[in-house]
Design brief:
9 strands, elongated, 312 residues, binds zinc ion, 35% helix, two-stranded parallel sheet, 10 helices, alpha/beta, 5-stranded parallel beta sheet
């Protein structure tokens, strides 16, 4: 049994998420995605590279994972942003097919490819390679795991949002080596299992937590507690997020009116000040004197009252 400990891992670009938050999101999403694909009646999940690899590692260690019903197959297939010409794609597919046959890779039933999807070039190239090898009639769906909604430029069957996806894709230790078309002739580089698990403490944490999920919530674990250090930078990001995600909802009627009713307070000199009831910003005394001069008012940049006139 691994002993939970604090991991010394570079988080890359700082967000409002601690390492613990990243892993919690990963585990929860992995469980949800596996269940979802199971519900679609798929028999195979293709893990097409590094982006979905930690999600697949988590799924493969969960109690719900049953390869007899829904198997996970790791097929590294790296593709830059460039779309290959038809001839190039055909040649790539020929070589890739040879590698699949050599390793006797079997894909059962309906197949779901999961990957980070932006331009879509990578996932489409992998789909094309699978159809080349197993026949055009195989049933393949594309499922995206992206860091925010709507960034997929191609149609996918379903897009899951996992804010920490870029960390597992680009920052943390790789689980699947690159395998570029120029390497497709090379059998040795076609590695269809996770690499370096024995020297990867993050993978150890993920595996241990996945085994206990969902019976034990990630946030209750020692792993989470020990890796949930909220540094000053993370706290600053949280404050920023909070401000930016603030929901300034007003009613339809309020939205249509050119006026709003301010909260009236008195300053130290017993002069009137207005506080916006929506964004809570307090304006100075000039705003009271010149209620139609927007430049005298303070509002949050997204406040719906910003261009409205206060009426007592
Ligand atoms: Zn306001």
């Amino acid at each position: 049994m691994p002993v939970p400990h604090k991991l010394n891992i570079n988080l890359g670009h700082i967000t409002d998420q601690t390492l613990g938050d990243n892993v919690k999101e990963l585990i929860e999403n992995a469980h949800m995605i596996y269940n979802y694909i199971l519900g679609l009646g798929c028999r195979t999940i293709v893990c097409g590279g590094q982006s979905p690899s930690y999600y697949c590692l988590a799924m493969m260690n969960m109690k719900i994972y049953n390869p007899e019903v829904l198997n996970i197959v790791i097929l590294p297939h790296s593709k830059g942003g460039d779309r290959a010409s038809y001839c190039q794609q055909y040649n790539d597919n020929q070589l890739y097919s040879q590698r699949l046959k050599e390793k006797n890779i079997k894909l059962q039933g309906k197949i779901a490819i999961i990957d980070g999807v932006q331009s879509g070039v990578g996932i489409i190239a992998l789909e094309s390679a699978l159809k080349h090898c197993y026949g055009k009639n195989i049933n393949v769906i594309k499922i995206a795991i992206n860091s925010c909604e709507g960034i997929s430029e191609i149609n996918v069957y379903k897009e899951f949002v996992s804010r920490s996806a870029p960390k597992f894709s680009d920052v943390f230790m790789r689980l699947i080596p690159h395998y570029y078309p120029r390497q497709f002739h090379n059998s040795e580089k076609f590695i269809t299992n996770f690499i370096g698990l024995e020297d990867n403490p993050l993978a150890e944490m993920v595996i241990d937590l996945a085994k206990q999920y969902p019976e034990h919530r990630v946030e209750d674990s020692d792993w989470f507690k020990l890796n949930n250090e909220i540094t000053l930078e993370i706290e600053a990001e949280r404050q920023y997020e909070k401000l930016n995600r603030r929901d300034f909802t007003i009613t339809q009627e309020q939205a249509e009116s050119p006026y709003y009713t301010p909260i009236i307070v008195m300053n130290q000199n017993n002069q009137k000040n207005y506080i916006c009831p929506v964004c809570n910003s307090r304006s100075g005394t000039l705003a009271v004197l010149y209620p139609t001069q927007f430049s005298y008012f303070s509002h949050h940049s997204r406040c719906p009252n910003a261009l409205k006139i206060p009426m007592e």
